[in-house]
Amino acid sequence: MNRLELKIPPVVVVLLITLAMYLTDKLVQWPLVSYPQFATTLSVIGLAVAVLGVWQFRRAHTTVDPRAPQASSQLVTGGIYRWTRNPMYLGFLLVLAGFATKWGNLAVVPWLIVYVLYMNRFQIVPEERILSAKFGTPYKKYLKQVRRWF
Questions:
Q1: Out of 31, 44, 53, 65, which could bridge 87 as a Cys pair, Cβ 3.0 to 4.6 Å?
Q2: CB-based contacts of 128: which residues, under 8 Å, 6+ apart?
Q3: Rounded Cα gap, residues 150 and 139, in angstroms
Q4: Rounded to the nearest 10 degrees, how much is the dihedral formed by the CA atoms of 44, 45, 50, 54?
Q5: pLDDT in tens, 31-76
Q6: How does pLDDT run across 9-40, given as a tens digit for each residue?
Q7: Distance separating alpha carbons of residues 84 and 53, to the nearest angstrom
Q8: Residue 130 phi/psi, 5° resolution?
C-alpha cells in the first residue's frame, strides 16, 4: 500500500473520481433533487479555496507539487491555512460535491467518501509525516491548531 503514497497527483485523483461519478450517474439512478445554482456555487467556492491554497504557497515561494512535500522550503500557516491544512484538497472536494449536487443522484455520493479516504491515507498522512520530520515542533503545533479538512 505504501507504493501508492504520494504517487498519483491529486488532480488526477479528482479527474478519476469525476469520471467514476459520471459513469455511476449514467448507470445507477437514485434520484434526488438537483440544485444547479447551489452546485455552481459549491464548485466556484471550491475552486476559490483551491486557488487560494496555491496562491499562498506561491507567495511563500514553496513547492505546490503534492508528490514532493520534502521539497517544501517553508511552513505556510497564514491566509487560508489558518482554517484548513489542506485547502487544495478541500477545494477539490467542494468541486466534486458540486458535481454530485448538479447531478442530483445519491449513487454518486459514495465517491466523495472514496476521495476523502484516499486523500487522507495516500496523500495527507504521508505529507504530514514528511513535514513533521522537516519542520519539527512548529509543524506539530500547527497540526494541533488547524483541522485537516475544515
A1: 53
A2: 143
A3: 17
A4: 90
A5: 888 899 999 999 999 999 999 999 999 999 999 999 999 999 999 9
A6: 999 999 999 999 999 999 999 988 889 999 99
A7: 9
A8: -70, -45
